[in-house]
Amino acid sequence: MRLSRASSAKRTVSEIVDFKFPHFEISCVNEQIMIEREKLIKYNKRYFERHKQMPTTILDFYKFVQLIGKGAFGKVTLAIHKLTGRYVAIKAIDKTYMQDSYSRQKVL
What predicted TM-score, i.e. pTM, was given to this entire model? Predict the structure, then answer.
């Protein structure tokens, strides 16, 4: 079973489920992420005190690790959520390709 007909980098479901994380220095990344995590916690606290709500999620909340795949409208990147430490997949869509209503409907 293929996930995307338009994707040039086609991956099967088993390829995605069995994805191996890239080899990188875990202790170095963890230390850097912990420092950035503390900064984000301070930012969230200040924002909450001023606005009485949590800030919207921004790209600074994530550490990008590796490109997983490319498709017709964008790319998918493996990232680490700095506050929780979980691995997530982030899909970045290039809006310049979505000029007609069919393309917008297909993506959304």
Answer: 0.60
